[in-house]
Amino acid sequence: MVLTGRAAVLAAIGAVVVAAAVPTTAGVLLVTGVVVALALADVALAGSPRSLRLSRDGDHTARLGTTATVRLGVRNDGRHRVRGLLRDAWPPSAGCATDRVALDVPARERRLIETSLRPTRRGDRTADRVTVRSIGPLGLAGRQVSHSVPWTVRVLPPFHARRHLPSRLARLREIDGRSAVRVRGQGTEFDSLREYVRGDDVRSIDWRATARHGGVVVRTWRPERDRHVLIVLDTGRTSAGRVGDEPRLDAAIDTALLLGALAARAGDRVDLLAFDRQVRADVARLGATDVLGRMVGTLAVLEPELLETDYRQLTAEVLARARQHALVVIVTGLDSGAVELGLLPVIGQLTRRHTVVVASVADPRLASLAAGRGDSDAVYAAAAAEHDRLARARLAELLSRRGAHVVDQPPADLPPAVADAYLELKATGRL
Amino acid sequence: MSGAITVAPESRPLDPTGADHWRRWRKPLAVVVLLLVTAVILGIVQSRASRGYLDPEGVDNAGARALARLLTEQGVEVEPVRTHADATAAAGPGDTVLVTVPDLLTTAQVDRLVDTGARLVLVAAQVRVPDYAPGLSAVLVDEPRSVDPACELAVAERAGSARLGGLGYDGDVSRSEGARCYLVDGEPVLAVTATQSGSPVVLLGTADPLTNEYLDDDGNAALALGLLGESERLVWYRPLPEGAAESPAAFTDQLPGWVRAAAWQLAAAALLAALWRARRLGRLVREPLPVVVRASETTEGRARLYRRGRSRAHAAALLRSAAIRRLAATAHLPAGEPGPAAVGTLAATLAGRTGRPAAEIVALLAGPPPADDAALVRLADDLDALENADVPRATGASPTGKDPRPS
């Protein structure tokens, strides 16, 4: 049972009646009794919110920054009209513009309520309860019931780095095309035989085929396809730190998406692993067709864990997944002692068998702090920033010395930089 | 309006119905009812056992039910009162008023009680004694014990020894048929005298002879009956702490009746409004919040530590080694660990490119730590100036300066 403001107003008007007509205790009791009796009658006459049947349909996914629409069907199975207020409760980060709407459903009819969501954060947003407040004909009181109508909208990462994809794909085609005239080398594979055209390298003439064919035939080569690319996201505590307005992990996800899309288009096999102390996400064997969809779906619910990443176990996981030579891209942050103590000792095991790229999300704030001048506070901050930059540089150097390729860029530049590193490795046949 | 709804997830009302409420709460309710019943029964039993000091219905040690019964059997009409108004209304000339805590009354109340003309029996009166009986004052004496009457008061002589003590009454009792009995430490514990208006007052230094505990000891019962059973009516006044009854009528009493009624009705309206606002439209929704910590948090913390510790030497060394690293990179020198020799080589190169003396550059890059904060700020600016002076040359003179490996 619920009361409305009208009941309180009626009781307040009753005060005038009491004062003018019956200024006694009995008068107060009488007027209040009348108000309460009217309210009770209203409750009895209100349509039962319990007899409503609710159902949902609409969007299951939304990219961060776009709007998702979820429709709520309200069917009245009861015998009375249900009139009142409905609240479709969503968590605040689901970005529900208006969660309460006026409701008027005659008996045996159905209404459709549209809720538009504009989520403010990545991940699963689960609808909470739908609460219906049915008010009686007098508008004094009513009944209220909450319904469970489960629905989940998965908010996908925005993939801002998408805009870098066309240029990188063009570059990929360029590499592919150029490779036709390349001579055989490491990391290339036999592509096809074709007729000799002027300008071809005479060393690539296939004499056996030439003898069989009649004309001069050359072999063409291309960078090896179907290589194995393993993207490893560090979801440990360093990934929780905010760079700008986003956690590091979001930049790492963007990087993984761009690289995954590019590598899949290049015909490579892409695996994805998110790890801190245990496997948080594991997507294997991504084909070219569904790579983005599956990666995005998996990465959407990834959250940073406040744990120290266990790099020893991470190495074991990587080695278990990549038995053949593979490109291992570890996306992490270089600025903590965790990497120095954790990744550095085990990076050798990885570089011995695989090509390793360590992609690190750098913080542009370090640069702005390091440029601070003018007063002693700013200079002390600059010194602290220089300390961290020197430590990062030294760490990057140590990692490079152990055979890893280090890409250390701020969030916006990291995805294209890693994609470029991949293309560079591919072009030079080092995958 | 209604579209084709694919009924994927079916709804389920969650709030319990009335029957659910009853099923859920009947057991706790039963426990609460049981507790209440037990409490009420215990309360009734307890109230008979312990009702307070000199209560005519009290059956515990400090009560006086036995005495009240005895008095009733003797034909005395006992009338228990609690308020001063009741006491003054009930008492009249010829009656006896027993005041169990005489000190609780204000001077004005004492005066009005005295003005009734009733005979007063005061138990353990102390500070108000002069108000009741002018000329007398209370003094502390030994604890109650069995004492002989030692006076010619008929009641006392009949009773013989009784348990008395506590307070004695010093002063002149000769106004009218006064008596000083039961001397303890030389002071009478039972004093009979008269009030200002001449009505008799009996001052009793302790309540012990009247209580259930000691009533059947010595001559206590006889003494109590003698003191209290003298008249036909006994007003048994157990005072309550009362404010001054003369306070002016309350503000609310001066308002017209309709204001009070309207106020109550408005209060009812406020209650309804509170109930209206109190009911939420559905429960609060949980939001799992992400961790919000800046990646540069540790850097800023370190900066604060430097600042607080005034570690200028450390800060200067960091700024210098960062500058050396950058300068070495632009000068295409090997970026190794910066040592004095490396700084010397670098300074020589820079001197050639910027035109500044090498010694000055060495002093800037590897000089002593700054003496104060101002010197540190200057050092940072000087390092910037050196780097800025170097950069245009390095990029501008690219064909020749492309690979200026110094010997």
From TrEMBL, chain A:
Entry keyword set: Membrane, Transmembrane, Transmembrane helix
Entry-linked Pfam families: DUF58
Keyword Transmembrane: yes
Transmembrane segments: 29-47
UniProt keyword annotation of Transmembrane helix present: yes
Chain segments annotated as coiled-coil in the UniProt record: none
InterPro entries associated with the record: DUF58 (IPR002881)
DUF58 domain span: 193-370
Protein name: DUF58 domain-containing protein
TrEMBL record, chain B:
Keyword tags: Membrane, Transmembrane, Transmembrane helix
Stretches that traverse the bilayer: 29-45
Domain of life: Bacteria
UniProt region (Disordered), positions on chain: 388-407
InterPro entries per UniProt: DUF4350
Domain DUF4350, first and last residues per copy: 62-228
Pfam family for this entry, one: DUF4350
Keyword Transmembrane helix: yes
Protein name (database record): DUF4350 domain-containing protein
